[in-house]
Amino acid sequence: MSSNVMIEGFYANLAPYYKWLHTDWNASVTQQASILDAVIREVFGASVRQILDAACGIGTQTLGLAELGFCLTASDIS
User: Fold this and answer.
1) What is the DSSP letter of 72?
2) Residues in a beta bridge with 72
C-alpha cells in the first residue's frame, strides 16, 4: 500500500471526529480568521480578496475568512 493511500485513509477515518477538535467552534473560526486576515494584510496588502485554500481540512480558516468577505476556493483530499 502506498503512503499516499495510507495518509488519505487516515484523514478519511479521522474526518467524522474533526468537530471535537475545538471546544467552541464559532470562537475558533473567528479567532483563526482574525489572525490570518492580519497576516494576509501585512504580507500581501489590503487589496487581496481572493484565496485558494488547497488543504482546507475542516474549513476552520476558510469559513472565517469567508465571513470577513474574502472570496475562497477550498478543497481537501479528505
Assistant:
1) E
2) 51
The domain limits of the chain are 3-74
Give me the residue label for grid cell 476556493.
73
What pLDDT digit, counting tens, does each position of 20-64 carry? 777 888 999 999 999 999 999 999 999 999 999 998 988 889 999
The burial class, CB within 10 Å (0-12 / 13-18 / 19+), for 39 is exposed
Distance CA(26)–CA(16), nearest Å, equals 18
Whether 10 shows a pLDDT value over 90: the answer reads no
Cα-Cα-Cα-Cα dihedral sign, residues 70, 40, 24, 76: positive
Confirm if 59 and 74 have CB atoms less than 8 A apart. yes
The pLDDT of residue 18 is 75
